[in-house]
UniProtKB/TrEMBL annotation:
<comment type="function">
    <text>Catalyzes the condensation of isopentenyl diphosphate (IPP) with allylic pyrophosphates generating different type of terpenoids.</text>
</comment>
<comment type="similarity">
    <text>Belongs to the UPP synthase family. Z-FPP synthase subfamily.</text>
</comment>
<feature type="binding site">
    <location>
        <begin position="34"/>
        <end position="37"/>
    </location>
    <ligand>
        <name>substrate</name>
    </ligand>
</feature>
<feature type="binding site">
    <location>
        <position position="33"/>
    </location>
    <ligand>
        <name>Mg(2+)</name>
    </ligand>
</feature>
<dbReference type="GO" id="GO:0016740">
    <property type="term" value="F:transferase activity"/>
</dbReference>
<comment type="subunit">
    <text>Homodimer.</text>
</comment>
<keyword id="KW-0808">Transferase</keyword>
<feature type="binding site">
    <location>
        <begin position="78"/>
        <end position="80"/>
    </location>
    <ligand>
        <name>substrate</name>
    </ligand>
</feature>
<feature type="binding site">
    <location>
        <position position="202"/>
    </location>
    <ligand>
        <name>substrate</name>
    </ligand>
</feature>
<keyword id="KW-0460">Magnesium</keyword>
<dbReference type="InterPro" id="IPR036424">
    <property type="entry name" value="UPP_synth-like_sf"/>
</dbReference>
<dbReference type="InterPro" id="IPR001441">
    <property type="entry name" value="UPP_synth-like"/>
</dbReference>
<dbReference type="Pfam" id="PF01255">
    <property type="entry name" value="Prenyltransf"/>
</dbReference>
<feature type="binding site">
    <location>
        <position position="84"/>
    </location>
    <ligand>
        <name>substrate</name>
    </ligand>
</feature>
<feature type="active site" description="Proton acceptor">
    <location>
        <position position="81"/>
    </location>
</feature>
<feature type="binding site">
    <location>
        <position position="38"/>
    </location>
    <ligand>
        <name>substrate</name>
    </ligand>
</feature>
<feature type="active site">
    <location>
        <position position="33"/>
    </location>
</feature>
Length: 253
């Protein structure tokens, strides 16, 4: 083993020891950004970058398991990404389908697709739903796979679902307007029943949300990492947790 590997392992162990169990976030959202730039830097094609990113997902989930995270949300494909050229989108969807199948096959985590599945090709939506069905009874961490996901679309879908539900119950618009509050809408989000993310991590150096969990992240802490997603390591993850643990959460106050 190279000296650099020995030092890396020792540093990771030290970071892990320093973590206070009480400061570990229950829900971590991750924006897996930088696959294409990682590929360009190596003279590779976009698909190679996306595959390298997919290959790193199981590592992340294992690290989350190790420290006791309950819920992880992975943003794999935005609604905007659905407008990419067909010759890039189709291979990317294939990589996502295979990655989700692989995660489900481990039988370690419960898979829950979040996003506008109606916007996806039917075979992709079916693969995601099948992965959810296969892992429904797994007693493990909940993993939201956000595919065809956009925060604005999620809020619009939640309001639409709420209106349809109330209409079916015979509630008039006027009656609903009198009582509607944030909890009514939250009950119709893709992540209904889940804790909001405590920590949101974005890789690749970009420092913006881009529409990720807009509603749920109102009180989240954010951590921006310079590494492209395929290069994101355990020490990067542990540094994010250390930074989170050092913050005094104010919850909007």
């Amino acid at each position: 083993m190279a000296l650099s590997d020995v030092l890396y392992a020792a540093y990771a162990r030290r970071l892990l020891r320093e973590l206070e169990p009480s400061s570990v976030p229950r829900h971590v959202g991750v924006m897996l950004d930088g696959n294409r730039r990682w590929a360009r830097a190596r003279g590779a094609g976009a698909s190679e970058g996306h595959q390298a990113g997919a290959d790193n997902i199981e590592n992340l989930l294992s690290w989350c398991d190790e420290v006791g995270v309950d819920v992880v949300t992975l943003w794999l494909l935005s609604t905007d990404n659905l407008n990419r050229p067909e010759d890039e989108l189709r291979p990317l969807l294939g990589i996502i389908e295979a990655a989700v199948d692989t995660l489900a096959a481990t039988h370690r985590w419960r898979i829950h697709p979040v996003g506008a599945l109606d916007l996806l090709p039917a075979p992709t939506a079916a693969r995601l739903k099948a992965a959810e069905d296969r892992t429904r009874d797994v007693d493990g961490m909940l993993v939201n796979v956000a595919v065809g996901y956009g925060g604005r679309r999620e809020i619009a879908d939640a309001v639409r679902s709420l209106l349809q539900q109330q209409a079916a119950m015979g509630t008039s618009i006027e009656e609903l307007a009198e009582v509607i509050d944030v909890e009514h809408i939250a009950e119709h989000l893709y992540t209904k029943g889940q804790p909001d993310p405590d920590l949101v991590i974005r890789t690749s150096g970009e420092q913006r949300l881009g529409g990720f969990l807009l509603w749920q992240s109102a009180h989240s802490e954010f951590y921006f990492c310079e590494a492209y997603w395929p290069d994101f390591r355990k020490v990067d993850f542990l540094r994010a947790l250390r930074a989170y643990g050092e913050r005094h959460r104010r919850f909007g106050s």
